[in-house]
Amino acid sequence: MAAASVVGLAALPALMSLARGVPAQPMIDSAAFYRRRLPHWRQDEATYFVTWRLAGGQKELSAPERALVAAELCHQQGQCYEIYAYVIMNDHVHVLVRPLGEQRLEKIVHGWKSFTANRLQRQEGRRGQIWQPEYFDRIVRGEEEFTEKLEYIVSNPWKRWPELVEYSWVWPRGDQ
Predict the structure, then answer these.
(1) What global pTM score does this model have?
(2) Which domain holds residue 137?
(3) DSSP string, 52-70
(4) How many domains does the chain have?
């Protein structure tokens, strides 16, 4: 997976093939729940839609900063998690991800946020808290919802900036 890719809205139909075979994820008795400010449900072998935002007072992410975040998302792809889609926007990140094996989503997201915050402070000169302490996550409950979240992620830049022709911090690419 390339850290910085380009995708166009015309590529969406080809990307929908990723949704085939996503098992339905009804909430079952073995699902775990915990709460910080937001509720978090956990279930084995689930795919999650995850969002986190810059902390208040932080300036928008620059192009090199977005590339740094994208590279970190890809770092343990296939080892700790399977990423189906991501987008790094100017002030938030969306990821469609499935933890692998015994990996826990909260540790994966903590790793992404901690590593990128540290690098943004050291390499880009940012100060203070980089990301909001919490993040939103939702268990994806089947092919229809998977397709909905995938479409949302890959079209997010064009919804915010309709004049865009290309966007380098969204994955997957339609030509892969």
Answers:
(1) 0.81
(2) 39-171
(3) EEBPTTPPPPPHHHHHHHH
(4) 1
